[in-house]
Amino acid sequence: MGRLTVRAPVLSVGPDGQHRRLDTLAAEEPLELRVDGKPLSVTMRTPGHDVELAHGFLLTEGVLGSSADVFSARYCDSVDDSGRNTYNVLDVALAPGVEPPDASLERNFYTTSSCGVCGKASLDAVRRKTRFSPASDPVSVSPATLSTLPGTLRVAQKLFDSTGGLHAAGLFTAAGDLLVAREDVGRHNAVDKVLGWALLDERIPAAGTVLMVSGRASFELVQKAVMAGVPVLSAVSAPSSLAVELALDAGLTLVGFLRGETMNVYSGPQRVTAPAVRPGST
């Protein structure tokens, strides 16, 4: 596995003057994903949990439905000048009978760590049907529980403490228990790692769960949640208009601006249980 952090010299400027020191940066390296030996995508990611990342990506692309759909996942064909493995090429071999990715769903060969939808062959390719629709999921979650999720996720961000430069995603139970948390320079990579973990742990469809993300709720993050059967997606920042549209269409509960005890519920409000009315209030 590649380095998670990198030390770099920096000139620190402040009211007390200037001084030079070493700063800790989040590592960012390319990962080429191959399926049955054929290059499919390159994404810039923080090294670590690459097998989960690959499984989550292929799940949300509609290729995988369970861990049994993968025969093997191994690093290959990636060495530096000294002959050492860089762990930057991962080949996933599909199990017999599993259909390979459709050409119409392929990304452009290079995508950035912050952009997923713009690399799609077309918007229509993203808005396909999921085999794990969350629409009928009866789960409910209280505002009090939702309000605890950002803080719990933040505590789990170990690399953020040293770098200050990583997105995070976490999968929670409806009671607010953290199942898994992952960090990455790319918000969609962090989600793919979480959902890949769920796939490998036989938790797909992810019924009865809440997916919490540390930034905004983009269209692609909503799409990933829907593809994995996640019924509730919450974010500390704003959703996009297209994210709300997809959430409404798919029956996903989308919560944005989750900060302290306040939040906006953009879709699926029936899953957010109302707090008890205080005596004397109307």
Overview of the molecule:
The structure is a single chain. The chain starts with a strand and ends in a 15-residue tail after the last strand. The protein folds into 2 domains: 29-125, Ubiquitin-like (UB roll) (Roll); 143-271, Cytidine Deaminase, domain 2. It has helices spanning 50-60, 123-126, 143-155, 158-163, 187-200, 219-227, 241-250, and strands at 5-14, 17-26, 29-35, 38-45, 70-75, 89-94, 167-173, 178-184, 209-213, 232-235, 253-259, 262-267. Helices cover 24% and strands 29% of the residues. The strands form 3 sheets. Strands 8-7-9-10-11-12 form a 6-stranded mixed beta sheet, with helices on both faces. It has a 4-stranded mixed beta sheet with strand order 4-3-6-5, with helices on one face. Strands 1-2 form a two-stranded antiparallel ribbon. The chain is built from 7 helices and 12 strands. Strand 10, helix 7 and strand 11 form a beta-alpha-beta unit. The chain has 282 residues and is an alpha/beta fold. Mean pLDDT is 85; it is low at 107-123.
